[in-house]
Amino acid sequence: MYFSLLVVILIIISLIGGFVIVLATFLVLFEKCLFGRIAIIPGVEFITLSTILVVLAYGPAIGVLFSICITMILPAIINNMIGEKWVANKDFSILGIGFGNVIDILCVVIIHFLRGFDIFWIMVVMMLVKHTTGNIIGKLNETNFIVDYLGLVISVSFNLGMVFFFHSFWLSLL
Predict the structure, then answer these.
(1) How far apart are CA 45 and CA 155, in angstroms?
(2) What is the pLDDT of residues 87-117, one digit of tens each?
(3) Is residue 22 within 8 Å of 13, Cβ to Cβ?
(4) Per-residue b or e along 121-156, where b marks 16 or more CB atoms closer than 10 Å to that residue's CB
(5) What is the rounded CA–CA span in Å between residue 137 and residue 76?
């Protein structure tokens, strides 16, 4: 039943937007509903990559709607339907709505202003913005906050590598 609901949602999204928004939605749902439950690699940013693709392909208004509807509301609904099954990540939240979603909307604006740059450099800026704000919020929320440098290096390396090695594919979508 859940799979058929997901297929119907993806069909509706594809009729409205096209292949880029379907791929971006799939990447977001993969990260928020499946990969977030197990979290093998820390800091995988499929949401950031999806947001970059959507904003570059459709503009900032659709980017904001994507950030609200697809990265916040839809995964919360799907995770609520699935429940606590298959959760191995101690930091996983079924709701998954928080300050990071505000940062995603801010990133839409930044991506729009950087649209003349290559997708690799946009991802570099997004990594700087997201990790800097994440560390500042961590410092403000916790008295004994320690930056996870290993996780930071793995996250940046993985995400920039994903954009670098599949660069021609990402550009062919736009």
Answers:
(1) 8
(2) 777 767 777 777 888 899 999 999 999 999 9
(3) yes
(4) ebbbbbbebbbebbeeeeeeeeeeeeeeeeebeebb
(5) 22
The confidence score (pLDDT) of residue 109 equals 95
Rg (CA), the chain: 16
Interatomic CA distance for residues 71 and 9, integer angstroms: 14
Buried b / exposed e over 80-110, threshold 16 CB at 10 Å, is eeeeeeebeeeebebebeeeebebbbebbeb
Burial class (CB in 10 A: 0-12, 13-18, 19+), 3: exposed
What is the b/e burial string over 50-79, where b = at least 16 CB atoms within 10 angstroms of the residue's CB? bbbbbbbbbebebbbebbeebbbebbbebb
134: left (phi over 0), alpha (psi -120 to 50) or beta: alpha
Please tell me the distance from the alpha carbon of residue 55 to that of residue 64, in angstroms, as a whole number: 8
Enter the DSSP assignment of 98.
Answer: S
Give 37-91 pLDDT, tens digit per residue: 787 777 788 999 999 999 999 999 989 988 988 888 888 888 888 777 777 777 6
Q: How far, rounded to the nearest angstrom, does the alpha carbon of residue 153 sit from its chain's CA centroid?
A: 18
**Confidence (pTM):** 0.86
